[in-house]
Target: SNTAN protein
Amino acid sequence: IPIAKQLASIKALGKGSDLEKAFATAALVYNNSADPKGKLSKAETKKLLQTQFGAFIQGQENKPKYKEIISALDDESETEIDFEDFMILLVSLTLMSDLLHEIKNVKMTK
Model:
């Protein structure tokens, strides 16, 4: 089921803000990929970030913080990621992203 259709089916978001819809979208993308226990393997998490968050991580490969985050996903000591950890990853990658700086500049130039 497409994310837009899933969002439309959540009655509480009918008049929701853009931010509420953005977080609901993140939750739906995660849930659609998670196992029945609501978790993702680290490998699945890495793949999900690459396919669904590519614009934010593009060009970050040489940054130490990015390398640290990705190497933690390659580490097999913990094999699963829950939604809370996934959101922390998203925020961490967003904060270090060049795209975030571009987004900030759009607001400043209007």
